User: Which sequence fits this backbone?
């Protein structure tokens, strides 16, 4: 196991970089996908306000007082129930001592329940004018045609890979309290249930999460130019 520690330490750094890259690379591709595709952020990227310590990481607590702190990013395809996501985690005791740290990888999308779109949230929070906000500034998309913030509850089966000790399976619930939010899910955050662990981390402690969906008109706008490429500008319309 000591030989694996440097590898896993590098893996943690790699996952953190991958999450950022995933945010940049998949957002443009999502503009050509259907409504069943979502990008999600788990206490990552522009959600992390330097002036608000509770924004990142996302925390799930148990009745015994220990907690899991998590961050990450990924994509969901609802119709095919597939997920590509990764991130880092830290397990802390009730006195905030670090018990375990490592990376997590998503293996399966168990379910996704959408609460509906909240297209104005980026403007309300001031994120739409932030140069670091990936599509709105980089590709000069208008706010209404970019990925749309959407509330919902995603349930993922994940694998926890610690720096030391055996890996374990777990179920991660990611709740974004936007849109028409059920009363029992009004608190934004995460919950974690670890296989073989007597403790359930079912109390959302802190952290921001968000799902980003693509509107249908974005797909139509992307496809529209391709329909006219076979006709020259000066050529009369063909019947």
Assistant:
């Amino acid at each position: 196991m000591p030989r694996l520690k440097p590898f896993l330490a590098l893996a943690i750094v790699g996952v953190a970089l991958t999450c950022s890259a995933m945010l940049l690379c998949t957002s443009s591709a999502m503009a050509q996908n259907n409504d069943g595709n979502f990008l999600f952020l788990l206490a990552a990227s522009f959600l992390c306000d330097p002036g608000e310590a509770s924004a990142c990481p996302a925390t799930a607590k148990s009745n015994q007082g220990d907690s899991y702190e998590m961050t990450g990013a990924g994509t969901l395809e609802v119709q095919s129930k597939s997920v590509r996501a990764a991130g880092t985690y830290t397990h802390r005791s009730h006195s905030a001592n670090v018990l375990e740290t490592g990376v997590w990888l998503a293996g399966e999308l168990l379910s996704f329940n959408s609460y509906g779109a909240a297209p104005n949230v980026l403007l309300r929070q001031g994120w739409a004018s932030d140069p670091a906000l990936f599509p709105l500034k980089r590709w000069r998309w208008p706010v209404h045609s970019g990925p749309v913030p959407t509330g919902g509850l995603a349930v993922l089966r994940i694998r926890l890979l610690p720096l030391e000790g055996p890996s374990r399976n777990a179920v991660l619930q990611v709740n974004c309290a936007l849109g028409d939010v059920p009363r029992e899910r009004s608190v934004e955050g995460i919950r974690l249930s670890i296989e073989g662990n007597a403790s359930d981390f079912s109390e959302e402690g802190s952290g921001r999460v968000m799902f980003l969906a693509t509107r249908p008109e974005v797909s139509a706008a992307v496809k529209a130019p391709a329909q006219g490429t076979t006709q020259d500008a000066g050529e009369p319309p063909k019947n």
In short: Residues 32 and 219 are 5 Å apart (CA to CA). The longest helix spans residues 4-30.
